[in-house]
Amino acid sequence: MSKTDEYQRTAEQYRQDTKEHGTESATERWCKPLFDAWMYSLDSETDRTSDETKRRLTALMRGNLNVRDAMIASIIDSTISTADMIGFAAYPKDKENKARMSALLAMSFGNAADGKTPWLNGRFGTALDMLSDMAAAPEQFGAQPLAIIAYVSWLAGASNAASIALQALTCDEDCTLAAIVLSGIQAKRIPVRC
After folding, report:
1. What is the pTM of this model?
2. pLDDT tens-digit profile of 174-187?
3. Which long-range contacts (CB under 8 A, 24 or more apart) does 156-164 make?
4. pLDDT tens digits, residue range 82-97?
5. Are 141 and 177 spatial neighbours (Cβ–Cβ below 8 Å)?
């Protein structure tokens, strides 16, 4: 079985599970062990995730962008727990989850525009390490990990955020987060600091 087939098989298994059990239930069940592993790595500031966990997270992000958004939240706010991530991924329309995600993104964007990035620490480096591994996924599966890297790098004021966003768009021209990053960079919404 090729690498592409492995990702496609995982994505199809997730889709089937959402059809049989509903998106919320399937997403919660799939994400719990994956987010636990992700958070364990972030909290220990060392990549301890297995290749299987990375493959499954990458495949899920392709099928459910709320998984991607939960991962972003965990990078930019160290108080986010696995339960919070599951709420963002499985129950994004819940008023509390929606309000919290919106406030978190607005605050991090505002802070970044003012040159404040308190979340730049060992967790950030660990997240980039894991996401870089995930971005090596075949074909369109690498787009969302690259988009996360581009987004948090842009918030951090990194000069390479545009090139990473372009890589994401090369993987998948419909990757809206990467397009948002490019648009924000062109509009100079966040100053380049590094």
Report:
1. 0.94
2. 999 999 999 999 98
3. 156/112, 156/117, 156/120, 156/124, 156/193, 156/194, 157/112, 157/115, 157/117, 157/190, 157/191, 157/192, 157/193, 157/194, 158/192, 158/193, 158/194, 159/192, 159/194, 161/185
4. 999 999 999 999 999 9
5. no
